[in-house]
Each structure stands twice: as structure tokens, then as C-alpha cells.
């Protein structure tokens, strides 16, 4: 019994020792992390910056440009707050062009997109539903029958919805959704697909996407290796590879969100007792003017940024990047958006020489930055308010987002951060303390050879050694 007690006491002592900040100077803590043998082949950058004194307290490779992954979202968010403002909202307008006569409308219902990435998003479930708004607007006019078409107007948004710097194998997964003038349901679809031992297959999408070809070419095999790609010669999504016979499902990119929205409007009208007949209506029979049925507003910009930083949403971020271009009177492309990011940062006095930006979200593999750049940008944003919010107020708590050690300390709530990860990349940037930041940190690691969990635990130790001794 005594031996068991001694083992328990030893375990507790070791756990406390692990979580207790080692008496290291900030530079010693940074060196202990960056020069560890587990990172001997990696590209590592670390910055520990004092906001009030505007000085670098400790660093490693501050001027080395390193892949950022999703920490790039803080850059796009900064520019959006600066150029668009805290209460900026996207507007999607639905207009009626045709004739209202008694309880019948004949003509077109046109959805005019504004690039709103949140339209019909499952991440804002209490926000007004544009589909219901359209049906309610028709019902309020006593309409029980619609004859014509529902048209999708993507405005000036280019047909290529994704960044040209994204990898092809990312384009069909939920995180690779692009941005259109009219987005809907996070630009993803849920696919149920099956493969049988005799080679027969089936596939369906929810919600339906009329006009989109879904093709299941998966073959039965003992090895599961399923992948998808877009058929650029037609609006198609192809499933291929091998898998054991069975039923499967997953979330994939929808390249035709406008078609999904139009179909959702039709199905909701029908359910509400409004009959719909899809028919061509001659232009000569349409009234010259248009009637505004719905002016749908997105959530405020600060709400959008809070959501995208928490969930690391690429599509939301790319939507903001293109909005920066559009609001400047430019074609809403990723490259024009990047130009506006640089304009915003230069206006803040940030040195952008250390920023190599190819997209807004960090999914582009070529996107890089220095930790000195992040320290400069985040420190300048620490005291700036947008409405009643600062960037740090929109960032999530560290919680369990790094390793196993930090959640056992006060830093779980006292640190706010944005993480980034992809194959061979792990990054974190953020503030301490969360409510009244005194310090900025940036940790960028590429091409590490240890396990990701081991690296994250080492990052925990670094933050514990940097911040827990701070009084």
C-alpha cells in the first residue's frame, strides 16, 4: 500500500513539474524550443513581442519567411476590419421581373449575389433564412402560383471560384470550397454513396443540386482509397478509387451553389402551397422594371470573423478577400484582394516585406510570412477597436487547440490565438493576456520530422515558459 501511495505521489509531482514554468529567460525558452533536436531539419520561426515597449523580447529566425497555413486568416481579417468596418454586411437581393396579377406571378425571380459567404450557412442557424424570406415575400402578396424561372446572377464574380494557387487535390473537399457571387449552404453538399461487391454503385446529394452530374466510379476492393475531383468539361463531381463494399457518406464541395439555392426556393414554395411551373417567358412579356422582394443582410463582419477564426473556415475568409477587391471597384479575384490587404496593412504602418500572400485563408502552399511580420501586425492591432471589438476579442481561447499541457494551466483561457496546420506545417499566432494583451507571439514551424502531437506539446511548454513567469 505504501508503495502504491509513493507511486501516486511521484506521478502527481511529475505532472506538476511538467506544468510548472521552468526558470528560463524568454530567449532561453525560445532557444530550448527552436533548437530541440526534433526540429533539426525544420524551418522554425518564433517571435515574443512586448506590445507596450514595441520591442522583440525573444526570437528565432525573425526574418525567415515560413509557410503560415491558416494563421494567414488573421491577415485577411485585419484588412477586412480596416477597410470594410466592424458592421459591414453583405447584401443578397432577390428581385421580381414580371407581372403580378391577382394570386399569380409570371416572370423571373432573380437572385443577385453580393458574394456573401454566409448565405444559408449552417454556422449561423438563427440568422434569417433567405429561402424563407423569398417565400414569405411572395405569400405576403397573396401569390399562390409562380410561372417562370429562378435565375442566379453572380454579378462580376469570375467563374473560377477558387484560388489558382490551391492544390487540385484540395478542391473537392469541404475545406476547398470556392467563392461565387451567389453562395449557399457553405458551398458544400452531403453525398451518400454506395459500392456493392458486384461493382454496382449509387450516389445522391443532399440538398439536391439540379444540373450537377455526380458520378460514382469507385470500385470494390479490400483497400479503401477514395478521392474526388471536378470534371472541368462539365458541371460534374467524380468519385473514384477503391473501397470495401458498403454504404458511405461525406461532405464535399458543391461547384453549383446557385442551383442548390434555386432548387431550395422551389421546394420550399411548394411546401408552402405556392405552385411553381418552370417555363420560358418571352422578354417582350416582362415588365421593364424590377420589384425588390428581399434584401438579405449577412451577419456583421465581426461575427463573420469570429466564426471563421474559430473554425478556420477557408471559404468565409476567401469571401472577405474578394469583398475587399469588389468594394475597391476591382474585379473580385484573390489577387486583387491581396492588393487591398497590402493597402490596409501599409495604412497601419506594417512592414509587409515579410508577407508573401497568395490567398486569404492560407490554403495556398506558397503563402508565407515572417514571425517579425506577425509581431508587427498583431501588436499594431492590439489596441485598435472596431465598434466595441478588437482583433483579440474575435480570436478563440487557446483551450485544447495546442497540446496536452496548456489546458491544465490558466493559459487555456488567458491566451487567444489562431492556429494553422497542414501536412508538414504547424503554426500559432496570438496574444497574452487575452483581455488586455501585453504580448504578441508567433510560432511558425514547417517540415518537422517529429509527430504533430509531440510538436504541439513542445509548443505548450514554450508558451508556459514564456507566460507563466510573467507578473
Give the oligomer, counting copies of the same chain as homo and different chains as hetero.
single chain
CATH class of the largest domain: Alpha Beta
Structural class: alpha+beta
How many domains? The number is 3
Strand content: 25-35%
Low-confidence stretches: 1-22
Please state the CA-atom Rg, rounded to the nearest Å.
Answer: 26 Å
Percent helix, as a range, is 25-40%
- Give the number of helices: 12
Bulk shape: globular
The biggest sheet, with number of strands, parallel, antiparallel or mixed sense and barrel status, is: 5 strands, antiparallel
Number of strands: 20
Describe this entry's structure for a reader.
By secondary structure, the chain is α+β, with helices and mostly antiparallel strands. The chain has three domains: 23-87 and 301-467, DD-peptidase/beta-lactamase superfamily (Beta-lactamase); 91-157 and 257-297, D-tyrosyl-trna(Tyr) Deacylase, Chain: A (3-Layer(bba) Sandwich), CATH 3.50.80; 170-253, no CATH class. The protein has helices spanning 2-19, 26-34, 73-84, 130-140, 257-271, 301-311, 314-327, 334-348, 371-381, 391-394, 411-414, 452-467, and strands at 43-50, 55-60, 66-67, 91-101, 104-112, 145-153, 188-195, 201-206, 213-216, 219-220, 225-231, 236-243, 246-253, 275-278, 291-297, 355-356, 368-369, 416-422, 425-432, 439-446. Residues 1-22 have low confidence and may be disordered.
Amino acid at each position: 500500500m505504501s508503495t502504491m501511495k509513493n507511486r501516486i505521489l511521484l506521478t502527481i509531482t511529475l505532472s506538476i513539474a511538467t506544468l510548472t514554468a521552468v526558470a528560463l529567460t524568454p530567449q532561453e525558452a525560445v532557444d530550448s524550443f527552436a533548437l530541440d533536436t526534433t526540429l533539426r531539419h525544420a524551418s522554425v520561426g518564433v517571435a515574443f513581442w512586448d506590445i507596450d515597449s514595441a520591442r522583440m523580447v525573444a526570437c528565432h529566425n525573425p526574418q525567415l519567411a515560413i509557410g503560415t497555413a491558416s494563421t494567414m486568416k488573421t491577415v485577411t481579417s485585419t484588412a477586412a476590419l480596416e477597410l470594410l468596418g466592424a458592421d459591414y454586411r453583405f447584401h443578397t437581393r432577390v428581385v421580381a421581373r414580371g407581372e403580378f396579377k391577382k394570386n399569380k406571378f409570371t416572370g423571373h425571380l432573380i437572385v443577385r449575389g453580393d458574394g456573401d459567404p454566409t448565405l444559408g450557412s449552417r454556422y449561423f442557424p438563427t440568422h434569417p433564412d433567405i429561402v424563407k424570406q423569398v417565400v414569405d415575400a411572395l405569400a405576403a402578396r397573396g401569390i399562390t402560383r409562380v410561372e417562370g424561372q429562378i435565375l442566379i446572377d453572380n454579378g462580376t464574380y469570375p467563374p473560377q471560384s477558387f484560388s489558382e494557387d490551391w492544390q487540385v487535390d484540395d478542391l473537392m473537399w469541404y475545406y476547398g470550397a470556392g467563392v461565387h457571387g451567389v453562395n449557399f449552404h457553405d458551398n458544400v453538399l452531403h453525398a451518400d454513396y454506395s459500392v456493392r461487391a458486384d461493382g454496382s454503385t449509387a450516389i445522391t446529394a443532399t440538398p439536391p443540386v439540379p444540373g450537377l452530374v455526380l458520378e460514382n466510379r469507385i470500385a470494390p476492393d479490400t483497400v479503401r482509397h477514395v478521392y474526388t475531383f471536378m470534371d472541368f468539361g462539365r458541371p460534374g463531381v467524380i468519385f473514384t478509387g477503391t473501397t470495401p463494399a458498403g454504404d458511405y457518406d461525406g461532405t464535399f464541395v458543391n461547384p453549383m451553389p446557385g442551383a442548390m439555392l434555386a432548387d431550395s426556393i422551389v421546394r420550399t414554395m411548394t411546401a408552402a402551397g405556392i405552385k411553381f411551373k418552370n417555363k420560358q417567358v418571352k422578354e417582350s412579356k416582362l415588365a421593364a422594371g424590377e420589384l425588390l422582394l428581399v434584401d438579405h443582410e449577412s451577419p456583421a463582419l465581426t461575427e463573420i470573423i469570429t466564426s471563421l477564426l474559430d473554425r478556420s473556415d477557408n471559404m468565409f475568409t476567401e469571401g472577405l478577400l474578394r469583398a475587399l477587391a469588389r468594394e475597391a471597384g476591382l474585379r473580385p479575384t484573390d489577387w486583387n484582394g491581396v492588393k487591398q490587404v497590402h493597402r490596409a496593412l501599409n495604412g497601419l504602418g506594417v512592414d509587409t516585406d515579410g508577407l508573401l500572400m497568395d490567398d486569404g485563408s492560407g490554403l495556398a502552399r506558397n503563402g508565407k510570412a515572417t514571425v517579425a511580420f506577425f509581431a508587427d501586425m498583431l501588436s499594431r492591432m492590439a489596441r485598435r477597436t472596431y465598434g466595441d471589438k478588437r482583433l483579440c476579442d474575435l480570436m478563440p481561447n487557446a483551450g485544447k487547440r495546442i497540446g496536452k499541457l496548456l489546458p491544465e494551466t490558466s493559459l487555456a483561457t488567458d491566451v487567444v490565438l489562431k492556429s494553422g496546420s497542414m501536412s508538414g506545417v504547424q503554426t500559432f499566432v496570438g496574444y497574452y493576456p487575452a483581455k488586455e494583451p501585453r504580448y504578441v507571439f508567433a510560432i511558425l514551424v514547417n517540415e518537422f520530422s517529429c509527430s504533430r502531437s509531440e510538436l504541439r506539446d513542445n509548443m505548450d511548454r514554450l508558451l508556459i515558459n514564456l507566460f507563466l513567469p510573467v507578473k
